[in-house]
Amino acid sequence: MRVEQVNWVDIPAGLLRRGTPVDEMAAVARRYADTGVPVEWYMKEAPRAEIHVPVFRIARTPVTVGQWALFAAATGWSASGTLATHPVTGITWEAATAYCRWLGDRLDLGVRLPTEDEWERAARGDDGREFPWGEEYRTGLANLVDLGIGTTMPVGSFPEGASPFGVLDMAGNADEWTSTLYAPYPGAPAEVPSTEHWAFDRHITRGGAFCHDRDLARCARRHGAYEPDLEAIGVGFRLAAPAT
């Protein structure tokens, strides 16, 4: 069976300015007050820390419906969606990791989900920018609820919303699984919960989907799959791999 090659982006080793400083949390909550998100939800981004992230590769765009269909046909996993160039959504973490193993076997490559730190590094680059494209939110650079589309768009539809490394769709379109289980960052404020027992799945997702407000598109925003209808909340994934 045909296997599509991945459009990889090489992310150099470097320092990630991860998260958000505690003393900026109140200002963040005020900036996005219209979304109704309380400051407590942002606190799990704290504290800001400089983290060394080794070199790795990440897919330029999320896995598409068409790419998923090849996997589904070969393995018996359920198909999802009919628009081949759109990101596949409604995918459980277990299914996403199964896809990674399947594709990795065929490419002879250690394909996997990105870690949370790798995802943020690919989105933010070398600075602590708010969004993949810069500090200010701009409608039209990502498929979020403010566009009013109400569903996914073809991957790569917003090239001006690229991250510093040229990675696309890191804000909006489909929320993305990481390989990282939720836990507070070291040194987190005491009020940050030690576990998110209310989540459908405890793995961190990143980036936000077509149905989300702009606060979820922030590079530092940590969230997850809190509802079992993963298609309705737009959960998909993209691939990572070791550097060659």
What does this structure look like?
There is one protein chain. The protein has 244 residues and is of the alpha+beta class. It has one domain: paralog of FGE (formylglycine-generating enzyme). Helix content is 19%, strand content 16%. It has 5 helices and 9 strands; from the N terminus they run ββααββαααβββββ. The strands form 3 sheets. A 4-stranded mixed beta sheet has the order 7-6-5-8. It starts with 7 loop residues before the first strand and ends with a strand. The relative contact order is 0.21. The model has no long low-confidence stretch (mean pLDDT 95).
Considering the chains and any ligands shown, give keywords for the structure.
244 residues; globular; alpha+beta; three-stranded antiparallel β-sheet; four-stranded mixed β-sheet; 9 strands; 5 helices; 16% strand; paralog of FGE (formylglycine-generating enzyme)
List the helices and strands and how they pair.
Elements: E1 8-11, E2 14-18, H1 25-31, H2 39-42, E3 49-53, E4 56-59, H3 65-75, H4 93-107, H5 116-124, E5 175-181, E6 201-206, E7 223-225, E8 235-236, E9 240-241
Parallel strand pairs: 5-8
Antiparallel strand pairs: 1-4, 2-3, 4-9, 5-6, 6-7
Entry summary:
This protein is of the alpha+beta class. It is built from five helices and nine strands.
